[in-house]
From TrEMBL:
InterPro entries the UniProt entry points to: Aldolase_TIM, OMPdecase, OMPdecase_AS, OMPdeCOase_dom, RibuloseP-bd_barrel
Keywords: Decarboxylase, Lyase, Pyrimidine biosynthesis
The organism's place on the tree of life at top rank: Bacteria
Active site feature: 62, 64, 67
GO molecular function: orotidine-5'-phosphate decarboxylase activity
Source organism of this protein record: Candidatus Planktophila limnetica
GO CC field: cytosol
Function, as annotated: Catalyzes the decarboxylation of orotidine 5'-monophosphate (OMP) to uridine 5'-monophosphate (UMP).
Catalyzed chemical reaction(s): orotidine 5'-phosphate + H(+) = UMP + CO2
Presence of the UniProt keyword Metal-binding in the record: no
UniProt cross-references to PROSITE patterns, sorted A to Z: OMPDECASE
Name this protein carries in UniProt: Orotidine 5'-phosphate decarboxylase
Annotated family: Belongs to the OMP decarboxylase family.
Binding site for substrate: 12, 34, 117, 178, 188, 208-209
Amino acid sequence: MSTKAPIILAVDTSDLELAKAWIAHTSEFVQVFKLGLEFFLNFGPQGIRAITENTDAKIFLDLKLHDIPNTVAHAAASAALLKPFFLTVHASGGGEMIKAAVKAAPAVKITAVTILTSLSEDDVRNVGFTKDALNSATNLAQLATSAGAAAIVCSPLETASIRNAVGSETLIITPGVRPLSMVGKDDQTRTMTPAQAITAGANFVVIGRPITSAWEPSGVEIGKRAREISAEILNS
Ligand code: C5P
């Protein structure tokens, strides 16, 4: 049986060698690696190639594109040259923007971010949404899938509602989860465990610091942590 759980490891570091080491020591247990703005603005396309050339790691390129359709189409086409598995755009960029990204990068799973999980209900209203986070995120997910997005990023608390709205084909990816060993140990009250998020309808969970904080130079501890969290998901 595979030891790789549907985990997307958030490789949030501006140290290229550290990124490579995290990936090398966790790839037995993790299916996808997320390289975001912190990584990309330090190392650019060459940095992504440096990660992918020596591994068959799938990449979640988290650039959260948000611009006019023509600009996003060109950006998505450029990003596609790096062969990421997922590429993120903001769903609030609108249906035409999402369609443009899908058309420009047909081999990449265009992944629409609904509402950042860091926003409170007050923040959601203050930026102009007229409904609460749950309903606004669900509407955005429907808009994005109608425009051709293959995947949606949302809070674990919105997963069940969004799964119900978009059907079974669309991939749902959720950050903001905390493994069993950490629940109650920090200030995250509105959270779920990775296994709960998957039961609620998510296909992948994004996990960063719960795994990467175990890093020490031998790599043994980060591998152990990834294995434990992978087992927690696969055995649930
Ligand atoms: O908190 P953690 O280190 O597990 O975060 C992993 C990734 O998930 C980060 O790269 C961040 O972009 C994203 N995240 C999020 N919403 C949260 C917490 C984290 O989108 N509430």
